[in-house]
């Protein structure tokens, strides 16, 4: 009685068919997961930059701004004090960051932590979105 080691062609084809089906189901879910993760990551980065700007305004007792880079929030933003860049962030290419008021170029934090201009930003990537809001009192939501 001889025993052959290995797989038959039928077993290999069935395994490949099952793997293809699983990949076909899993890849779209993974793409959605990645888009959600990108949006969450960039929302957190914007929140952290705004909180940093607010705390620097209070600490320095000075006006601190968060400004868009190259006239577009999607290109990134910089936290500035008197023209000096304290912190800068550049998002991925496939992220759209849009303020409700499209004319908003700066968010200014006053020495008491409040802001001159409340704003809501929408961060979008591949159909997934999240909002970050700044109240006039300087709260980041």
Automatic annotation (TrEMBL):
InterPro entries: N_methyl_site, Pilin-like, T2SS_GspH. Its main location: membrane. SUPFAM superfamilies: Pili subunits. The keyword Cell membrane applies. PROSITE patterns: PROKAR_NTER_METHYL. It is found in: Cell inner membrane. Keywords: Cell inner membrane, Cell membrane, Membrane, Methylation, Transmembrane, Transmembrane helix. The keyword Protease does not apply. The chain crosses the membrane at residues 6-30. It is a single-pass membrane protein. Residues 44-138 form the General secretion pathway GspH domain. Belongs to the GSP H family. This is Type II secretion system protein H. It comes from Kistimonas scapharcae.
């Amino acid at each position: 009685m001889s025993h052959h080691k290995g797989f038959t062609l039928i077993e290999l084809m069935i395994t490949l068919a099952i793997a293809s089906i699983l990949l076909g189901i899993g890849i779209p879910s993974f793409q959605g997961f990645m888009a959600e993760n990108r949006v969450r990551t960039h929302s957190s980065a914007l929140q952290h930059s705004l909180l940093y700007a607010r705390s620097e305004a209070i600490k320095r007792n000075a006006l601190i701004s968060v400004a868009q880079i190259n006239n577009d929030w999607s290109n990134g933003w910089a936290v500035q004090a008197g023209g000096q860049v304290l912190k800068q962030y550049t998002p991925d290419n496939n992220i759209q960051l849009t303020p409700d008021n499209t004319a908003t170029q700066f968010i200014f934090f006053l020495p008491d932590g409040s802001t001159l201009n409340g704003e809501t930003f929408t961060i979008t990537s591949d159909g997934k979105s999240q909002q970050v809001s700044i109240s006039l009192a300087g709260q980041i939501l």
